[in-house]
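For the sake of transparency, this paper describes our internal protein records without simplification. Because each token names a local backbone shape, the row as a whole describes the fold. One such record is reproduced below, unchanged from the form in which we store it.
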Amino acid sequence: MIADRIAVVRRRIERAAARAGRDPAGVTLVAVSKNHPPDAVRAALDAGVVDFGENRVQEAEGKVAALADCHERLHWHFVGHLQSNKVRKVLAFADLIHSVDEVELARRIDRAAGELARIARILVQVDLAGEETKSGLPAARLLDALDQMRQFPHLRVEGLMLLPPYEEDAERVRPFFRRLRELRNEAREAGLLAGGELSMGMSHDLEVAVEDGATLVRVGTAIFGERAR
């Protein structure tokens, strides 16, 4: 069942990429396994997915331990809101942190990464809708924040991430995806990003995100089904 769903999601990505004249290989599928057991992750891994996203530190730690035998085969992404007191724990397993929303948090990640003698790969979360329930840097502060972050020696800012408002009609979120791409391009031209990643698009709107340049799509429900409670 999970393998079938993954095949459907990959076809959706391929069709959207074709419409945009893009190579679908440029879009990484991140399977968001929040509230699903390690066996579900293992099934997705067996179906060819190697990137997995987690929102909660404690749950992620349990899955990392349960899937230790697969360590060399998969990559963990932290996609939830990151509290500063959880930075070290996240660095212990995450290959990429999608949700850095403040310079001070980036500073803490840099410091912890230095103590671990490694480089932390992050994305900066941008808030384009001003929703109180979501985190992110306002667009007006982004370039200045990126300029500060590039001074941190143990940090590599790979790109930007977005959580747009939920809309039944995915076309209504296209302007947010387009704006994030514009901000990414502006930041790259200014030499403020070490990469060009755009983490945007989920189960219900991934086609629009891919058409507008997403390089990472975070898909949970369309792969694992409704989340267990």
Remarks:
- The mean pLDDT is 95.
- The chain has one domain: 2-224.
- The domain at 2-224 is CATH 3.20.20.10 (TIM Barrel).
